[in-house]
Amino acid sequence: MAISKDILVQYPDLVKEVQETKDKITKLEHQIANIEKQLVAINEGGHVKDKVKGGLGGIQNFNIEGFPEREYQQKRKQLQDKKNMLNVRKRTLDKQETKLLQMVSDIEEFLNGIEDSFIRRIINLRVIEQLSWNKVADKMGGYNTEDSVRMTFERFLKKK
Q1: Helix 133-140 and helix 146-159: axis angle, to 10°?
Q2: Which end of the chain is more exposed for a tag (fewer CB within 10 A), N or C?
Q3: SS (H, E, C) the chain
Q4: Cα(134)–Cα(127) distance, integer angstroms
């Protein structure tokens, strides 16, 4: 199986992208819950009352009451828009997670085909576990430096 460096490099970004999408979904769900509470409050509050002056030179007082229809309709539209956006983001997340799972499967299959355990460990630590080159070198032990493991990784990929 041929796998390019691009896939190995792209994997950590896709993991982050999935998490960012999950965060956006959570935020949107909170916004939806908030709007729903506001709609309930408007419904339960029923009528609003206000006093205004007008009429004969602005000296007469009028009591106005009624249901805040415009505010209610605006909130309902806002709620529907947020729910539509939530559905779009959930579909996006499904696609991202499917792609991520396929990518993990491809990378693991690729790793299993590598005979050199040292190279397998470097790729696994760097790509799958997303460690910095410094931490990869520390995990590899011995006299490995961040530059030496990075260059080993780069040279291996150039051969592939």
Answers
A1: 100
A2: N
A3: CCCCHHHHHHHHHHHHHHHHHHHHHHHHHHHHHHHHHHHHHHHHHCCEEEEEEECHHHCEEEEEEECCHHHHHHHHHHHHHHHHHHHHHHHHHHHHHHHHHHHHHHHHHHHHCCCCHHHHHHHHHHHHCCCCHHHHHHHHCCCCCHHHHHHHHHHHHHHC
A4: 14
Q: For 120-150, how does the pLDDT look when each residue is reduced to its tens digit (9 = 90+)? A: 999 999 988 889 999 999 999 989 999 999 9
- Supply 9's token pair: 């490099």
Residue type at 55 in one-letter notation: G
Q: 70-86 burial, b if ≥16 CB within 10 A, otherwise e?
A: eeeeebeeebeebeeeb
Q: How many residues does the chain have?
A: 160
Around 117, how many Cα atoms within 13 Å sit in the side-chain half-sphere?
Answer: 1
Residue written as token pair 């009352």: 49
Q: What is the pLDDT of residue 4?
A: 65
